[in-house]
Amino acid sequence: MTSKESILAAIQANKPDLLPLPEQPEFPYDNNLTEQFRQSLALNGGEAREAKSFNDVTDYLETHFRNSQMIVSLSEKVSGNFDVNMADDPRELEHVELAILEGEWGVAENAAIWLPEEKLHHRALPFIAQHLIVLLKKDRLLGNMHEVYTRINVEGPGYGVFIAGPSKTADIEQSLVIGAHGPRSMTVFLMD
Amino acid sequence: MKAAPTHAAAAAEFLKDSERSHWHDETLWHVRSKRDVSAQKIPEWEQLRTLASQIKDHVLSNLDNLLLQFEKKAQANGIEVLWAKDAQEHNEHVLRILEENQVKQLVKSKSILTEECGLNHFLEDKGYDVVDTDLGERIIQFNKQVPSHIVMPAIHLKKKEIGDIFHEHLGTDAGADDPKYLTEAARQHLRQKFIQAHAAITGVNFGIAETGGFVVCTNEGNADMGTHLADIHIACMGIEKLIPRAADLGVYLRLLARSATGQSITNYTSHFHRPRKGKKMYLILVDNGRTKQLGREDFRNSLKCIRCGACMNTCPIYRRSSGFSYNSTVPGPIGSILSPGMDLNKHSTLPFASTLCGSCSDVCPVKINIHEQLYKWRQVITKEGPPQVSKRWAMRFGGQVMSKPRLFELMGKMARKSLSISPRGFVYNSFNAWGKHRELPEVPKETFKDWYRKNRNHDK
Ligand code: SF4
User: Can you tell me the distance from the alpha carbon of B381 to that of B167, in angstroms, rounded to the nearest whole number?
Assistant: First the structure.
């Protein structure tokens, strides 16, 4: 017997009678999604800003990232200074200072933003960059996790991730430190 | 396997440093309090717990079919699926993959399963340098320790000690203990390891039967840094980690981080379904005692565990005695019902490391009846084997006395007399396991019965 066969046989011998799988629930949620998202993101160590247009984003970059040598932008409306297509291997992204991505959905209860592989170019990009900016349309905000799973197809992309804040740790005496391995900051622009 | 030191003996060691024990207790209670605040914000919290438990009921009752569905989908998506009966086979699979792909450098993110299988030691014996990349795990790896908590592996260490460890291994300034400074040093050190790694090993939080994919949750982003840079991804998963549908993640992700640390979600929740183009992804499905536990009706529910650690944070025994006192990969209340299933002799004292207060069951997001199972293990152990001879002997003797009212009264009289004149050493000696951690109440001058006889007339 292979290990697979013996494991399956043991399960068949030991499992209880079939119990039903419950239906997926729907729960009501707050209507002020923008405000709730902002608060959730702050608790996770990130910052949400409201933007009327892409000019607001460009202005922000001008003040905060003017001297950055390596900015990768995957948004057509905002320009970076490094073409991600130049990197065949994700290791070449090692010195990316800022990555600008477009989120697909945002979840107000926990600030999780769904980023499927096609929005990342390299899976490593949002992790290896020193800072992260995500642009998200306000009408892409949903209330809770049940909602978002009815909208996305997790299997479609080979990889997809919910990002809800910058890289963080509290492994030293429970003190929160932002910037464990990945981004040292995460700013989300909620676009009109 | 040889019996481990009893939980009580190991706890006594930890309690010698009362200042540390007090600090440990407070730190974990703080985490527990954050969990409460977070849970109270969700009006449907109790409904979510019930759903989470019911979904797992279904999974356990249909595990064989779901695993087959999962494997088929995963294979169709280009993931190589391997099965392992036990820890040894799991470790051998990993080794073979590393050898076949001529991997030299590897990084690993947090996986309690690989800890359970002793993977690091196994690979180190074969000459591999396994780099744990979760900050807490890297700290204890430097310190040659195992995790003392499943979510916060280095919770037993103070920053001063971590500063010393980093000074020795990473060359940070002597005496420096600022968490920000130390984290930055680890960041720089581990970035190099990520860039150099050929293979990345991760655990799995959830496997999705209908899509053949799996989900990994971290706050640091270390699982992603590892897997997206390396050519080979090896994911190690206990067979009970399965859920039927992607939508079930809605239920579990709302519960997991809130129960663990009070966060609404971990900052990264990664869904893996296919390897990167030209790269390889392996998934190892591990039994290692899980199918046996499935067959134990009284203990089956323990397989629902999603490893949030809430039962540890709330446990009055865990908080005061620390994870090491359990001598088991998974410590705390849930460890005390899982580990006896793996090796009853080695872990026979763990079900007794509880006050049976039930706080663990109250916070468990998948509603495992932890304290009831602890009690059931006690019954199994006292019937089958010697937990700790002196406590058992005392219990049997006590049982006889309790069942005979006359004898009980007589023994009581003797005890009141003798305790009041006994030297301490006679009462709190090594034969009296209960005397170790408990002060006896002051001896009453008369029995309740005597008192009642005397006083009932007053009411008339
Ligand atoms: S038993 Fe429950 S509370 Fe304890 S770690 Fe598992 S899921 Fe969390």
Answer: 46
Q: Are residues B117 and B201 in contact, defined by beta-carbon separation less than 8 angstroms?
A: no
pTM of the predicted structure, to 2 decimals: 0.88
Place of tokens 């290791």: A91
Minimum distance, in Å, between the CA of residue A6 and any CA atom of chain B: 8
Closest CA to ligand 1's atom 8: B308
What is chain A's Cα-based Rg? 20
CA of A89 to the centre of ligand 1 (A): 40
Decide: B252 and A95 in contact? Cβ < 8 Å: no
Bridge partners of A188? A48, A134
- Report the complex ipTM: 0.98
Domains of chain A, start order: 32-191 (3.40.50.10420)
User: What is the rounded distance in angstroms from the CA atom of residue A106 to the CA atom of residue A148?
Assistant: 8
Set out the domains of chain B in order of their start, with CATH numbers: 44-288 (3.40.50.10420), 389-459 (no CATH)
Read off the pLDDT of residues A2-20 as tens digits, 9 standing for 90 and up: 999 999 999 999 999 999 9
- Window 347-386 of B: residues touching A by CB (8 A cutoff) are none
Alpha carbon of residue B48 to chain centroid: 22
Q: At CA A170, angle to CA A164 and CA A172, rounded to 5?
A: 160
